[in-house]
Amino acid sequence: MSWSKNISINTWRCGRLMSMYPQHYVDPIYKMEDQCSKRTELLRLSHIPIKGALNNSSDTIFNGEIKQKMVNYITKNGEGFLSRKLMAQTLEMIKRTQLEGSYISPGYNKTETDAESLLIQAVENCRPLLQLSSIKRGGVKYHVPIPLTNKKSYFLAMKWLLDASREKDRKVSLPEKLAWEILDAAHGHGRVIKKKEELSRQCESNRAYAHYRWS
Amino acid sequence: MALRVFGLNLVKTNRSVLQNVCKTGATPTQQTVAPYATEVTVQASPAAVQKQKVSKAMKAYLKRANEHDEFMKTQHLEFQIGKRHLANMMGADPETFTQQDIDEAIEYLFPSGLFDKKARPAMKSPDEVFPARKAAEFDETGRPFHSMFYTGNPNFFQLLHDIVQETNKIHELEERLLRRGNTPDENQKLDTTGFQLMPKDQLELLLVESIADIEYSNFVNSMERLIALPYAYKSKEFIERFLKPLMDQSKQLEIPKPRIDEQGRQYITTYECLRKTARADVTVRMPGTGKISINGQDIFYFPEEKCREQLLFPLQFSQMLGKVDIEANVEGGGPSGQSGAIRWGIAMSLRSFVDQEMIESMRLAGLLTRDYRIRERKKFGQEGARRKYTWKKR
């Protein structure tokens, strides 16, 4: 194994053998459009080192942020290849169902057939705004509604979609069930939407305790 | 700069010069060269002072200075002799033997397998080995020259004092101009993009004093406050002394010139494209038809779509897809590492075929950064690299 020896020597020569970038490194901007729109801001970046582009990034229309996140959440035990395959199957399933629907009812041509925009629509529909957290005041636990950050609410929406589709018969495959859930959620009904509404109803009923968040 | 040398000989020989300096340079900041390096050295002893009692501190200092001077003299002598010996051994002319020749000779005569460069044998001029010391800061009677002598770091505190003085001056100016109804000139506004405040080690060299981290942050804060003032351009000269220009990141690496192959096409080969444990060398040929060959196979060398996409990322980003041919040899690592290595190689080679603006864009997209991150090892007593085992007190 001559190459492995060479590599180790080379990394020594760089003097930096580490698993993270230093703190002053800045995240890269993959999309050319984003770079063009932020021209003036980027002048500042010309003196700052940039992190390397991640190996799942590219400047194409096939690279959606939510799709990417969903793939990451599907992944178990580092099997990214499998999860990307499952995601592709899911999107294919959605596309097929929508196309079928549009063919069966010829007058109804307005059916959305873009699978990825349906996925985004579904996630947006499932996003909760508030969450209940239990806070102890005077020996009594209260369920207090607290607002969620954007990131957390996206995470919860995608997690609920996945959880719902993992509760299934053994004969049904994950892409199939996930496609159903996504289609349901995108049209504003289904289990995940119900779950979200249930949570918001609970938050509403516990609104009296909201002040415990800061007092 | 001669004042920085801790030597009495110098002081004696340049007595008259130093006296002038002491007289004229009462405020050390007004000196042009290395203002904070030294203030005043030992005052040559005029007859009037000679009769006065020399303080104990001065006596000790003079003794130390003498000793140091003697020591440096012998060191210089030894260095010269050693240099001549080395030159003779290497069969070179001892008169024109430079420091670089010395380093090469030492490396040749005493080959060392030690990893740390500082631990390897070396021969350097004693001026480099023994750093410059401060000259005397007090006169024969033991009375310090500098009013901030007892702070321990007189030069540093003088600097802080100067910064605040500048700030106050600008504040006063602002008020005066405001009363007259003037506003600061927008065109002259001080722009510090592309500049950086002097780092701590350089400031220490400038002051000949070691300063603590918190002291350095005090310096940074007061400088930033000064720079942020609307009339900061009035004291531009002062500020610029503590600014250091930053290099443009994309201009740091030299772009190689393409070579011509036997078919008359331009080509660039990038060796040592590394990512994780993969290593590749990539050749980009222009003009081409978009052929890609990896270890003799086409792009389907990578069964995964993601890896193939990675290969095309720099080409698609710089709009060179279908205009260049790519040949790559890659070994080691897995598919992800291999594709990453080739991607970096392609991006680095493409620099020779695109314009400067596109190079900067590619840098901003993170294509020109060598991703040197490596799997962090598992630690004992921990579940992984960072994660700890679950632990419950009771």
From TrEMBL, chain A:
This protein's record includes keyword Hydrolase: no
Coiled coil spans: none
All copies of domain Small ribosomal subunit protein uS7, residue ranges: 58-207
One GO process term, biological-process aspect: translation
Top-rank taxon: Eukaryota
UniProt entry keywords in alphabetical sequence: Ribonucleoprotein, Ribosomal protein
Protein name per its UniProtKB record: Small ribosomal subunit protein uS7 domain-containing protein
CDD domains to which the protein is assigned, alphabetical: uS7_Mitochondria_Mammalian
Family: Belongs to the universal ribosomal protein uS7 family.
PANTHER family: RIBOSOMAL PROTEIN S7
One GO cellular component term noted in the UniProt record for this chain: ribosome
Lineage: Eukaryota, Metazoa, Ecdysozoa, Arthropoda, Hexapoda
Automatic annotation (TrEMBL), chain B:
The protein's name: Small ribosomal subunit protein uS9m
Any single Gene Ontology cellular-component annotation: mitochondrial small ribosomal subunit
Record's keyword terms, sorted: Mitochondrion, Ribonucleoprotein, Ribosomal protein, Transit peptide
Single GO biological process annotation from the record: translation
Pfam short name (any one): Ribosomal_S9
Gene: Dwil\GK11052
One MF term in the entry's GO annotations: RNA binding
Subcellular location(s) of the protein: Mitochondrion
InterPro entries xref list: Ribosomal_Su5_D2-typ_SF, Ribosomal_uS9, Ribsml_uS5_D2-typ_fold_subgr
Family the UniProt entry places it in: Belongs to the universal ribosomal protein uS9 family.
